[in-house]
Write a structure and sequence with these properties.
By secondary structure, the chain is of the alpha/beta class. It folds into 3 domains: 3-243, Glutamine Phosphoribosylpyrophosphate, subunit 1, domain 1 (4-Layer Sandwich); 247-442, Rossmann fold, CATH 3.40.50.10490; 443-598, 3-Layer(aba) Sandwich (Rossmann fold). The chain has 17 helices and 26 strands. The chain has an 8-stranded antiparallel sheet, covered by helices on one side. Strands 5-6-7-8-12-13 form a 6-stranded antiparallel sheet. A 5-stranded parallel sheet has the order 18-17-19-20-21, sandwiched between helices. Helix 7 (262-270) packs parallel to helix 11 (401-418). The N and C termini lie close together (10 Å). Bound molecules: 5-amino-5-deoxy-1-O-phosphono-D-mannitol.
């Protein structure tokens, strides 16, 4: 799980180092424990630093460093701790070739043992370093750079996106297998990167590489080939993202910007998919998918919480549905008939556990669907069908607008596949963007955050549709504040967690929609009796107001859309708590945006 980038300008010595360093800042969400660059001229210059990108930037002599081609890497450690030595790029014994890699090389131990026995010296503990040494051997055998690169890649087992530069050559050589790689076709040069934000300010014209493909970018163009070296015809797509979509646009953090983008994200998600006239939902991408006999959702983290919500939506429409942690899914253990559907929910489309679960479902013969944000992502290709949530790029590690868009997309999916929509439902979906805007405009979450920022722990509770969003509220709180936070279906509290509740553990209660029941109010009373302050997220005034300490209001909607609104208040509560505590909000410790290892 890392970000890689490569660039060759159309004319030599045109700011390669600036393009690479700026591009890395657009990839930092993929990992940020160390970073490095390599610039190829008559020799290869490598700079690497432990820590965030700023450490590397202050080590690189931007003014005196330039060349014909460059690569860069921002790392989330898997093999070896984050140190200067383990940061990429890695080189061969002579410094002729430099390589950056995203993924895991499963056979690196055997390769390294062979290479060391043959006299190659290693500087790092990484799996990646075998690649430049394998290239070195091929070069010594007389292969040209492209052949040497191809021969080295052919010996790897595992997952990889790899970029390499050679001394004295103008090109960047790249290959992908189960890790993302996209080419950017610019007017001033050619880019290649793990994700589009790396070069979006230079071009919106892209070529998505497929597994098993190689690409060479050089000043005169890009060449894509298959494993055997045959040229592959590719099409250049124009993506709909604007450069400012990948910037902070004046907000303090990407997370804050992305929370505020939710009205727009939801408008994009529903665009062209709702009919006001007959109250139906249609999702063009789904083609012939009919009412499923059963649905399994497979997902991780926030996407798993969206899946819990979706499973309930389907069950309420009479379709048996369950959500599974993707890492625990065993398609063979829960047999499905051939009208069942396995849905992988993944914002990035690159989460290894979710991809693995989808592959298992494919092997078991199930029909599969990916619900993802990233066009051309691995998930979009692993499944039989793909539905895009259209949230736009999400940079902050904490998922916010993509969770909202997932919920809306999955609500539409359940309506479309069960023919259960109605004019009222379409109206309620259309109202969501304005309702979210009103929450953003009037939220008192910052005041609540300030009041409880020194709490020992936070508990989040909800019932029915409010239960998944309680889990999500707790995940967001722990992820960005580093405070202990747990979410529970409210009824579960008295079966154990209540022992932890006291006057220093605020309880955030989702008391909206069906969660407004007498039982829910009873659960609120249970925690109050133990001295806990209660923050209610509610669409109601009367009965709740008198029982709680703080109120975070949401407008009324249909019960099943309530969590989409309630979640906005929970996001703001976490954001402002983390802000108050001075946390690294966009890049919380130990985490990365895209988790490409199982
Ligand atoms: O890209 P995905 O949706 O597959 O990512 C799954 C989780 O890693 C992710 O939702 C994670 O839990 C969030 N970053 C938390 O905010």
């Amino acid at each position: 799980m890392c970000g890689i980038i490569g660039y060759t300008p159309a004319e030599t010595n045109q700011g390669v180092i600036d393009v690479i360093l700026d591009g890395l800042s657009g990839l930092e969400y993929r990992g940020y424990d160390s970073a490095g660059v390599a610039i190829a001229d008559s020799s290869v210059s490598v700079f690497k630093r432990e820590g965030e990108l700023s450490e590397l930037e202050s080590a690189v002599p931007r003014d005196s460093l330039d060349g014909d081609a460059g690569i860069g890497h921002t790392r989330w450690s898997t093999h070896g701790p984050p140190t200067d030595a383990n940061a990429h790029p890695h080189t061969d014994c002579h410094g002729t070739v430099a390589v950056a890699h995203n993924g895991i090389i499963e056979n690196y131990r055997a390769l390294r043992a062979e290479l060391e026995a043959a006299g190659h010296e290693f500087d790092s503990a990484t799996d990646t370093e075998v690649i430049p040494h394998l290239i070195e051997i091929a070069l010594e055998q007389g292969a040209d750079a492209e052949t040497a690169f191809r021969r080295a890649i052919g010996q790897l087992e595992g997952s990889y996106a790899v970029v390499a530069v050679f001394s004295g050559l103008e090109g960047v050589y790249a290959a992908r297998h189960q890790s993302p790689l996209v080419v950017g076709v610019g007017e001033d040069g050619y880019h290649i990167a793990s994700d589009v934000p790396a070069f979006l300010e230079h071009t919106d014209r892209v070529i998505y590489l497929q597994d098993g493909q190689f690409a060479t970018i050089c000043p005169s163009g890009v060449e894509v080939t298959d494993e055997r070296g045959s040229i592959v015809e590719t099409s250049v797509e124009t993506i709909a993202w604007e450069p400012e979509d990948a910037g902070k646009s004046g907000y303090g953090h990407y997370m804050q910007k992305e929370i505020n983008e939710q009205p727009r994200a939801i408008r994009d998600c529903i665009r062209g998919r709702l009919s006001d006239l007959d109250g139906t939902v249609s999702i063009d991408e789904l083609g012939g998918v009919g009412r499923p006999s059963a649905v399994h959702f497979v997902a991780c983290g926030t996407s798993y919480h969206a899946s819990l919500y979706a499973a309930r939506l389907f069950r309420d429409r009479g379709v048996p549905a369950m959500a599974f942690h993707a890492s625990e899914y065993d398609a063979d253990a829960v047999p499905l008939d051939n009208e069942a559907l396995v849905v992988g929910v993944t914002q990035s489309g690159e989460t290894a556990d979710t991809l693995s679960a989808l592959r298992g479902a494919n092997r078991a013969g199930a029909e599969t669907l990916s619900v993802t944000n990233v066009v051309g992502s691995s998930a979009s290709r692993e499944a039989d069908h793909v539905m895009y949530i259209r949230a736009g790029p999400e940079i902050s590690v904490a998922a916010t607008k993509t969770f909202a868009s997932q919920q809306v997309a999955l609500a539409m999916l359940s309506d479309a596949l069960t023919d259960a929509s109605s004019r009222g439902s379409v109206e309620a979906l259309r109202a969501l963007p304005d309702q979210i805007q009103s929450i953003l405009d009037d939220s008192r979450a910052r005041e609540s955050a300030d009041t409880y920022a020194d709490a020992d722990a936070y508990f989040f509770i909800g019932r029915g549709y409010g239960a998944p969003v309680a889990l999500e509220g707790a995940l967001k709180m722990k992820e960005i504040t580093y405070k202990h936070a747990e979410g529970f279906p409210a009824g579960e509290l008295k079966h154990g967690p209540l022992a932890l509740v006291n006057e220093r553990t605020p309880v955030v209660a989702v008391v909206s929609g069906e969660s407004k029941s007498e039982k829910m109010l009873g659960n609120v009373k249970e925690v109050e009796a133990r001295g806990a302050p209660v923050i209610a997220v509610t669409d109601s005034a009367g009965e709740v107001q008198s029982d709680v300490d703080d109120i975070l209001r949401v407008p009324q909607t249909k019960p099943r859309f309530m969590p989409i609104l309630a979640n906005v208040q929970l996001q703001l509560l976490s954001y402002w708590t983390a802000h108050r505590l001075g946390r690294s909000i966009d890049k919380p410790r130990n985490l990365a945006k895209s988790v490409t290892v199982e």
